[in-house]
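Bug #77: duplicate submission created two jobs. Keeping one. Sequence:
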Amino acid sequence: MKISACIITFNEEKNIERAINSVKWADEIIVVDSESTDRTREIAESLGAKVFVQKWLGFGKQKQFAVDKAQHDWILSLDADEEVSESLRDEILSLKNSDQLIADGYKIKRLSIYMNRPIRHGDWYPDWQLRLFNRKKGKWKDVPIHESFEMNPNTKIEKLKNQIFHYSVENFTHHNRMITERYAPLAALMMFQNGKRTSIPKIILSPLLAFCRSYFLKLGFLDGFAGFCIAYFTAHHNIMKNLLLWEMQQNNKEKSQDYQKSS
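Kept job's structure:
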């Protein structure tokens, strides 16, 4: 079992060294960079990674491009703002050196670090992700957001005990920008493409329900003020994506009406 660690990047000079150092034990490290303007590529190359430059294709396609560049069939997929814990490294190495593999893919939980503390409740944990897999057994889904590796039918998936550390949010300004500039627009687009629709009552109620689910039902309050902030931004994301979806619906309705008038 030889493993290729695959990482996609864009302007990740603050994070890439930590990510690569956490997978130095892999048989090769692939970095696919979408035309960064900082020192991401230089840092990755200096640490021994094989670096490829590819114009941004979207999350799923970019990760599939990285998988296709790998020399080995077993892939460990890591985001640039993530780090493999030492305990997870040891667990994977034990699996790597075993005589028989019991699965075609393995899910790994992510532990987010937010406001300088680990988040163990709410919507962010355990956040299971299929990150160690045999590439012959599936492919990355081509979706605007929340991409995942989709295994073929009749494949076996197990869970590993240890975790990846996730350092996704720098501060409140960054968190707000991530939602308004990336996640909410992409989520709205995916909902629209999948035929989902929203309404004024849903726009009003969805943020309240999202906050209550994250903060109360999933025990986010046990994470202190950080848990409250995560619940707030979860609510903010919900209202933003529903507002953007509503806007798409109205624009589509107007276009349809204009077409009917012209015909």
